[in-house]
Model the fold of this input.
Amino acid sequence: MGISNQLKNQHLLWRASFGPDTIPVEELSADSNKKLIKALFKASEKVPAYIDVADPAIKEIYMGMEEMYRQKGQLTEEQRKLIRDKSRDGIRALNLTWLNQMVHSEQQLREKVSLFWHGHFACRTVNILHQQQLLDVIRRNALGKFPDLLREVSKSGAMLNFLNNNQNKKDHPNENFAREVMELFTMGRGNYTEDDIKEAARAFTGWGSNAAGNFVFRKNQHDTGKKRVLGKSGNFDGDDILDILIQHPQTAQYITKKIYRYFVNETENDEQIKWLSDRFYKNGYDISALFQ
Done:
């Protein structure tokens, strides 16, 4: 006896969403897998709304910090306390609001894939503005092109601060950001050398952000010299390094394997993963196409 449509669709919904919810059993039984997959993608086409839970008072402080620093000013103890308290409250509200979206949104596929990327691009920050911006980047690009997602995450205030790239300067390179981009975000451990990391770190010098979370390129802190990364040489900057990583087939292999283990089966099928990663690479890292 074959597996019923109902069981197939229940399995699909647990994999590609957060479960059947209140879908009538009759609908699960009547619809084919293909029809349900099409419906999941259709429901997730719309770009999700920006989740903004930050207190206006904390926004005002963050927005004014650049000017304050230019004038050699400092935050008052009262402002520091407000930032700590309001950030803690804001991050809790952001988490609860997103969880509510996961439960009730019609964009179940987008939110499930966003949760995957949220784990892939793991990040910790106490700045609520940075948190909101990074979550928005992930949710907007969850089903788009991986190069766009990678670039926006890499230029986010949250990630640049978390991985210490604001301290990455030409006279004192900091390798943390370059290492994590290669090891966790693109190629996976063991597919690059320590020299590749050192050279990539030089290329990322000058990349930073302001208190409000906007990307800032500090030209006077950037190493303009020639670098050699993964067999390629040039006066590379951070964008060039991301391009080199995207052009390497190992990145497609690494990302495909992680997606396969999360959404399909923790037991890897090398032949299937190779087939999928080849198409992912040829399709320009189109995430939606990979899932379909």
Remarks:
- The chain has a mean pLDDT of 92.
